[in-house]
Design brief:
Strand order of the largest sheet: 3-2-1-4-5-6
Largest sheet: 6 strands, parallel
Distance between the termini: 16 Å
């Protein structure tokens, strides 16, 4: 059984992603801490922008370890990513997370340890693509989809670049299938039904 997503109605009501811009917006929502491995997100944006001329953006939303934040800011300067990374340290109410996912095309999960994460479920419900590592429940939830579950940084770079190079229609098709899968297999109603079966 999995956790319920309290903001699910608002997330499912977000319009489908159009992928009509010439760049994608990547995002992370959660606690800023070293086990979340945000460093790899920055190196990914460096790989896409500075090595492959994609000019993607990254939104990091959350608060936490001040010393880690300072390390991340130094790395952003070193990689010349200041124009491509946005830090928002404001708390988002769990019932308002759809405002974050509305701005994001791809949600990143690069943690070194993880239980879920719940945010990956929220991102899929909100119509985002999810890319990340084989951590927590990522393989069990999303292992049947291309590009999503990666075993190392090089594989993540390859998967992300492959996704970016798809046509907008191919991207739209993937995230639609992703969202439909969520509704069928991972939604609150599905979880409630499965739970009810345990008590029969």
């Amino acid at each position: 059984m999995d956790i319920m997503i309290f903001n699910e109605p608002n997330l499912l009501n977000l319009p489908p992603k159009k992928f009509e811009k010439d760049y994608l917006v990547f995002g992370y929502l959660g606690r800023i801490s070293r086990e979340k491995n945000i460093v790899d997100m920055l190196f990914l944006i460096d790989f896409l922008n500075n090595q492959n001329n994609k000019k993607c953006k990254l939104i990091i939303q959350g608060d936490g370890d001040i010393s880690y934040l300072e390390d991340l800011e130094l790395l952003i300067d070193k990689l010349n990513l200041k124009n491509f990374v946005e830090f928002n340290r404001n708390f988002i109410n769990p019932l308002q997370t759809h405002f974050f996912y509305e701005r994001v095309d791809v949600f990143l999960v690069t943690s070194t340890s993880e239980g879920g994460p719940m945010t990956a479920l929220e991102a899929v419900a909100g119509g985002c693509c999810v890319l990340g590592y084989n951590i927590g429940a990522m393989q069990a939830r999303f292992g049947s989809f291309p590009y999503v579950v990666n075993h190392n940084f090089d594989m993540l770079c390859h998967s992300t670049l492959s996704f970016l190079n798809l046509s907008k229609y191919e991207k739209q098709s993937i995230v639609k299938e992703f969202r439909d899968f969520y509704k069928l297999e991972l939604s609150n109603s599905t979880k409630a039904f499965k739970l009810s079966q345990l008590f029969k």
